[in-house]
Design goal:
The complex is a heterodimer of chains A (201) and B (162). With 201 residues, chain A is an alpha/beta fold. Chain A contains six helices and nine strands. The chains are: A alpha/beta (201), B alpha+beta (162).
Chain lengths: 201, 162
Amino acid sequence: MPNRKYAVFLLALLTSAVMVGYYVYSKSVGHTPLALSSPPKGGDFTATSNQGPVSLSDFKGKWVYLYFGYTFCPDICPTNLGNLSAAYHQLTPKEKNQVQFLFFSVDPTRDTPKRLAEYSRYYDMNLIGMTSDKANIDHVTQQYGAVYAIHREAKDPDNYSVDHSAFTYVISPQGKLVTQLPHGTDAQAFLQNIRHNLKTQ
Amino acid sequence: MKWFNKTLTASLVIFGAFTFSGIAYATAEPEAQKITVSNAYAREVPPNAMASASFMMLKNSSGKDIYLVEANSAAAKTVELHTHVHDNGVMRMRQVPDIKIPAHGMTMLQPGGYHIMLIGLKQPLVSGHQIQVTLTFKDGSHKTVEMPVKSVMGMQMQHHSM
């Protein structure tokens, strides 16, 4: 009988060892947690567009919708920008003049200012594509509580994805970060948010 | 012992016949034939974009789980199966080895989730064009799907009308 107890104990020990092992393994495999630094303060920043340096403060007096992404992104970024564009097209000409959209690429290796300009033009709204060096990108994303990480699986040096926060940051005409809208916000919700903000400014 | 040998021989013959017919049955009904594809499309992308994605609904009419293991297309240099992991507002795009289509069930390849990633586009994907994507299932059978290229901006309206 003591032998059996011993065996049960051994088995339990082994099982838990496997569980711990699996937990450690699953944590280590492509799933490094990205800490969302909170609460985000927002604030001014400068980055490079195809037209030269652009600062958030250039748009004082307008509501700014800021999105961090990358042009290689086949789905998440186009969905969000497409929804923003659909909302923008329902605005009156006067309303359109009061909003500015910024696409800040966290992938400066592939996203040149020229590529970003072409990409931004496609969405047919007041959208400026911009990027910067890694140090400044890290600084600005931290200001806004956004996170990103390069994720590489293939050997091809140009084939990698970038994990990124998919929020749209809403900034008041005074340059203050007001709120962040989650991924999946549809055109109607963006439109409501823009109209609400334009009324209450 | 003669009867024993006879029985054994007979059993072997019957067993062999079963096995053979089993193989014949399997080859006659490739997995690709049990999959119905609907609402397939590829996303229009801005000029000079490096990548796009293809989405569709896959329905499995068989009683067995079927796995999509590969996709190919002349439209792109590399084609991969991907999913998105949503993690506290952070989107992580990950390659997956296969996409399961459950027995008598369906799997959606849709924005924000599973998609066929088209990497290194050979020509811009423009709305109104058609592209072909060939799906390969675990048993090696193929299915070629012809799909339109659709604009992202129009998707919002489609979503509401569905």
